[in-house]
Design a protein that fits this description.
Strand content of chain B: 25-35%
Distance between the termini of chain B: 28 Å
Helix content of chain B: 25-40%
Helix content of chain A: 25-40%
Largest sheet of chain B: 6 strands, mixed
Order of helices and strands of chain A: EHHEEHEEH
Strand order of the largest sheet of chain A: 1-2-3-5-4
Structural class of chain B: alpha/beta
Number of strands of chain B: 6
Shape of chain B: globular
Radius of gyration of chain A: 17 Å
Oligomer: heterodimer
Number of helices of chain A: 4
Shape of chain A: globular
Distance between the termini of chain A: 46 Å
Structural class of chain A: alpha+beta
Order of helices and strands of chain B: EEEHEHEHEH
Largest sheet of chain A: 5 strands, antiparallel
Strand content of chain A: 15-25%
Amino acid sequence: VVPNDLRSAKSCEHRILSELSRHGYDEETKFAIKLALEEALTNAVKHGNGNDRSKKIVIAYAVNPQRAVLGVRDEGNGFRLDQLPDPTADENLERPSGRGIMLMQAYMTRLCFNDVGNEVWMLKKNPRGEGRHPARQRGRKP
Amino acid sequence: VSEAGYLHVRREGGLHIAALRGEVPIDQADLLRQRLPQLVRADAPHLFIDLSEARFIGSSALAAIIAAHNEAQRHGGRVLIVSPQPAIDRLLHVARIEQIIPIHPDLDSARAAIQST
């Protein structure tokens, strides 16, 4: 649980990125996870909690060599995913904002929100970790 | 002129060149959103955004670039993106930024594009 400001969120982001490096994630995968995490944190701090410093955000993560799972929850009222305009539509390209969710979807393996829309969970598989899963190794033909 | 660790700006005739270097920190993106559009003015309506040394940008930096593009249009100028690294080039294409802001491989190419208009 961290205060609702991006400086606090940044320190948590550093810890997660260090975990990714420790588990051997490549630069492209780390770029994707960093991008999605920053979008989620920015959304939580600014839009979910409305930059209210009395509020908190909850960040949860689990990283192993095969995958990274990240969750971010704010205290806001959430949103409806199906009501967001498509930022890649021609008529929206010159709108400065509104690309965060699209980028999270584009760069992560899986993305889901709770029913309210104030909690997001993201999964990223590590392409380099595929062969390091014990169960997969057992099932592999020689 | 170094305005922040990640933002270096210099003027070249009727344009500014803003070089983003390293990473735009998550807690600094709002400042970039304010600053980039300010670099577009009536006496310098063009802006090159040099990404050759940028390692990471997110949607907040994209918003700053698009806000500068919109401001440049109001002044009859253009924003051009120069020399993005492959990861950022992919990001620009995923977001379809290249549909509204041209991407050039180097500064000379960008200068030639401005001179030909």
